[in-house]
Amino acid sequence: MVSRMLRRLALAATIAAFPAAAMGAPAAADPAPMPWLNVSAEGRYLSADGKPFFWMGDTGWLMLSRLTREETEQYYAKRAAQGFNVIQVMVIHTAEMRSRYGAVALEDGDPARPIVTPGSDPARPGEYDYWDHLDWAVERAAAHGLYLALVPVWGSVTATGKVTPASAAVYGRFLAERYGKHPNIIWLNGGDTLADEHTEMWQTLGRTIKLIDPRHLMTFHPFGRTDSSWTFHREAWLDFNMFQSGHKSYDQEEPGARSEDNWRFVAEDLALGPVKPTIDGEPSYENIPYGLHDVTAPRWGAADARRYAWWGVFAGAMGHTYGENSVMQMFVPGRDKPSYGAALRWDEALDAPGATQMRHLKTLMLSRPYFERVPDQSLILDNGERYERVLATRGRDYMMAYSYTGRSFRVRLGAIEGQQLRAAWYSPQTGATQPIGTIANRGERRFVPPGTPAPGNDWVLLLDDSKTKRLP
After folding, report:
1. Are the C-beta atoms of residues 461 and 467 closer than 8 Å to each other?
2. What sign for the dihedral angle of Cα 291, 293, 296, 300?
3. In what order do the strands lie in the sheet with 218-222?
4. What would you report as the CA-atom Rg of the chain, rounded to the nearest whole angstrom?
5. Which of 161, 397, 433, 472 could form a disulfide with 417 if both were Cys (CB 3.0 to 4.6 A apart)?
6. CA distances (Å), 181 to each of 30, 34, 110, 372, in order?
7. Residues contacting residue 21 through CB under 8 Å, at least 6 positions apart
8. CB burial class (10 A; 0-12, 13-18, 19+) of residue 16?
């Protein structure tokens, strides 16, 4: 009782002092040094200290509420070893949000009243507050070379009536002042929500954070089959676009919708002005049912996860975010009520095949001159629909084409430099390369991928000026 009263008094004093810069200032040490992220000069990609930054993200949405510190370290270490460099996390998932140790984030579910307990001991589990735990999570992520893409408040919390423009302004200032010094933060405004609902509140939150914390990049995480660009593209606080291609199959979608064709979102975003990078922040998760809610429906697999990733990036996205059903909710059988038919423990699901294969995309993209790369569908002369679609991208002296089914396709040559081209097949499943040989860089040519054409027999055609010595 006494502790509760002291906490209320401390909180009241904090709010009364707002907007003083000391509000909720963390006592933890500075994080391990990591480069700040920026939009690159051509406006389509990200850079870190001037070097290419390829966003390879994972959805660890419920990490803060369901993992202990030891489990968080385990999760970070595994994903870093698998080549991931961004973890997308909910800061406030529900109005009752609390850490795995029971520390409540908000007083009465109000974002304007974060519960801060000055003098709590971050080293003693159960005795530190929610924000101490987030401080620790940010710093430990940096130690593992990871950026945290933080969703300040999930869209569903707006139904409580306590997330208003006024409370968003207070909460935004609290977050910006507390985390502005950490280089490994990215802000995901929104949170699985429609941008044309509660728009003033999202605008206030975005503008407040950006005004106080201008160095961190920010976007908007939208509802399924929608895109941040539809409402916020020209907003100064939106540094890059994010769309959620969603979890429905072609057969579950309305006629004419983008459906599984996540490359359509990318093409539309890159045609807008001013140019901004874009990314699929939530495609179909591995091991989740088609359409989410019918647990008897077929499940998306590793091949589907690869397809979304390679389609989006070859269409011009700055990277990709992967997701796995049990991992995104940090599910433990017997402890948690499963959502969307989750069955595996989260730590077992970390080794889902799709998760282990994402690194091959990142490896290939960083193996060629990065900032010059552009999508170029004119290179494919006999393109198909749906799963037969071949996505092509190129630089000055290289080109790549991704076929999800491994069907043969014709390529227009002469679009890149070099009289002779070195040709090879690259496997998105293994990262292995199979040489084809050297060909003349003129006319057109049909290429036939290895294996029998079928969904999931995916291959990437690599063509390089023969004078280069590139691998992967």
Report:
1. no
2. positive
3. 218-222, 185-193, 147-151, 86-90, 55-59, 319-322
4. 23
5. 397
6. 8, 11, 25, 31
7. 177
8. exposed
DSSP secondary structure of 130-161:
HHHHHHHHHHHHHHTT-EEEEESS-GGGGGGS
Lowest mean pLDDT among 16-20, 113-117, 405-409: 16-20
pLDDT at residue 452 greater than cutoff 70: yes
How many residues comprise the chain?
A: 472
Q: Which two tokens stand for residue 276?
A: 């901004």
Q: Is there a contact between 308 and 243 (Cβ–Cβ < 8 Å)? A: no
Say which residues have a Cβ less than 8 Å from residue 239's Cβ, sequence separation at least 6. 39, 217, 218, 219, 276, 277
Q: Strands, E, within 8-61: which ranges?
A: 37-39, 46-48, 51-53, 55-59
> How many CB atoms lie under 10 A from the CB of residue 98?
17
Residues 6+ apart with CB under 8 A from 151: 61, 88, 89, 90, 91, 92, 188, 189, 190, 191, 221
How far is 72 from 44, CA to CA, in rounded Å? Answer: 32
| Strand residue runs (E) in 152-303 | 185-193, 218-222, 226-227, 241-244, 278-280
Side chain identity, residue 352: A
Grouping H, G, I as helix, E, B as strand and the rest as coil, residue 304 is helix
Buried b (16+ CB within 10 A) or exposed e, 148-177: bbbbbbbbebbeeebbbeebbbbbbbbbbb
User: Of all helices (H) and strands (E), which one includes residue 397?
Assistant: none
Residue at token pair 């290429």: 447
How does the average pLDDT of the chain come out, rounded?
Answer: 91
Q: What is the pLDDT of residue 29?
A: 45
Q: To which H or E segment does residue 421 belong?
A: strand 420-426
As given in the structure block, the two tokens for residue 157 are 């919390």
Q: Which two tokens stand for residue 183?
A: 């280089």
Q: Average pLDDT, stretch 12-18? A: 34
Residue 217 CA to residue 223 CA, distance in Å, equals: 20
Q: What is the mean pLDDT of residues 400-404?
A: 98
Backbone angles phi and psi of 220, in degrees to 5 = -130, 125
Q: Write down the pTM of the prediction.
A: 0.91
- Residue 50 tokens read as 């001037």
Q: Are 311 and 326 in contact (CB under 8 A)?
A: no
